[in-house]
Write a structure and sequence with these properties.
Blueprint (H helix, E strand, L loop, with lengths): L8 E4 L4 E4 L4 E6 L7 E3 L10 E6 L7 E4 L6 E7 L2 E8 L7 E21 L2 H4 L4 E5 L2 E6 L2 E6 L5 E3 L2 E9 L3 E10 L10 H16 L9 H13 L1 E2 L4 E2 L22 E2 L3 H9 L4 H15 L9 E2 L10 E2 L13 E2 L10 H15 L9 H14 L18 H21 L5 H18 L1 E2 L4 E2 L26 H13 L1 E2 L2 E2 L19 E2 H13 L3 H13 L10 E3 L4 E3 L5 H15 L10
Antiparallel strand pairs: 1-2, 2-3, 3-4, 3-5, 5-9, 6-7, 7-8, 8-9, 9-14, 9-15, 10-11, 11-12, 12-15, 13-14, 16-17, 18-19, 20-21, 22-23, 24-25, 26-27, 27-28
Helix pairs in contact: 3-13, 4-5, 4-6, 4-13, 5-6, 6-7, 6-8, 7-8, 8-9, 11-12, 11-13, 12-13
Amino acid sequence: MGQRIEDYAVIGDLHTMALVGRDGSIDWLCLPRFDSGACFAALLGDEDAGFWRLAPVDGGTCTRRRYREDSLVLETEWDTPDGTVRIIDAMPPRDGAADVVRVVEGLSGRVRMRMELRLRFDYGHIVPWVRRQGERLSAIAGPDSVWLDTPAPLEGHDFLTVSEFEVDAGEQVPFVLTHHPSHESAPPRRNAARLLKGTDRFWTTWMSQANYEGAWSEAVRRSLITLKALTYAPTGGIVAAATTSLPEELGGTRNWDYRYCWLRDATFTLQALLGTGFVEEAGAWRDWLLRAVAGDPADLQIMYGIDGTRRLTELEVDWLPGYEGASPVRIGNAAAGQLQLDVWGEVLDGLHVARGAGLAGAEDAWDLQRALLDYLEGSWQEPDNGLWEVRGPRRHFVHSKVMAWAGVDRAVQAVEKFGLEGPVDRWRALRSEIHADVCERGYDPERNTFTQFYGSRGLDAALLLIPQVGFLPWDDPRVVGTVDAVQRELVEDGFVMRYRPGSDGGVDGLPGIEGAFLACSFWLADALNGIGRRQEAEALFERLLQLRNDVGLLSEEYDPRYERQVGNTPQAFSHVGLVNTARHLSGTHPATAADT
């Protein structure tokens, strides 16, 4: 397809999200939810997998594009020899059906346009039955139907719907694509102008809540909009990204489905939302968290579906060749069944942050927290798969132990600061035991650094979080030494790798390498600021901002070799990192887990 990951902007309706390329083509859209099958999947294959292009008849890359102020309404413009034309793209917040609105607007001259629409359900696998219904076009297969309304002429050619028309200055030609259950009557026709007006109003109203007053305001506001767009409104769950199988290594096999909600994101996301004024969204995320993890603490998963679904069976989609040939394409995520002990600590930490912020109903979570603590008390000494979901042998990962300590520490604080009931003396003793174990077995005194796991020679970017969670103070020599070691051993072209896949004989059990992990690079900026090297921290943060695409979006990783974004996009963890680091650098104190 020739589109780089950073060539895509996004539009969304708080249920799902579409990726729109600089050529005017929507190459990825799952309907009706983030985790549904894609009806446009050209992103992971070719045009036969489904796409919707709207552009001047000669095609090509747009001249410029932008979002309308603080909104998710995208404006893409082409300057052509015959005039200038704009396409306005949006997905109105859901009021029943899912709509994609595309409006062609003539700005000058007279421009000939071409629309091409190829619908394919189930990730390009199912060709729907397409027919005309009066002035409407419908495409039906199984449970899905999609309806297209437009005054433009439509023709069918080789399973492709085509429209060619001209647009004059001041003229608008609307297209509205509506998804609807196939067993129900046809949806009513939608007014594009009214839908766009409502979308603008929604985003303007929502962003009026923001109270961020620090530096880098434009970048922070765009990241907050992106986080909101990645939220599944019915449940409050926030997906890690809108896509699956965009590779961590171009042409490689490290391709995963990120359309789910990770518990590891809980505390950082709550910090970002609470710290910028979005208390309602923070409460919805906290409530999703409580529902998702309810039940036997031993059954806690690292991730869940957007509605709390636990079974996320992983399968390979062999009919899609993958993004730039990176295969396999995966649907579902087998890492949901891994043991990652840090998530118990992360859930306890997140609920502690929520309690400290005074979120309504926080006390209802205490019984659940005590059950989680009981499990953690009996299991923290077990080896696990670690934060990064390695598919190699289980190890005693240092970050996992540190987060176990953090979970117990938050329980102690709940008793000491909030007057909740619990065996605080036993918890204090457990906290001390875990701390001593990590300092003895997870620290290399020769190199003055903590290590990825007990006995490891490798490092892990998650070690940068040791002072953030309060395990050690920022000025502890072991913290400073670890920051120095990460800079020395995990930094590529100034950006941070999660770990070295080949260290310790191949820690993750997978072939190939990956790019620099953007969230970890934000962590390094926080760490540099925390140990008093503010100038270095700001310089790194400014470099990270330059990696955003032209509309302010970040994927999961950045490949310094090819100077390209890689991994799933847009990545919530990257944008959460941006918001929180901007907050920390704009303040007068370093990041801490309790900082909201």
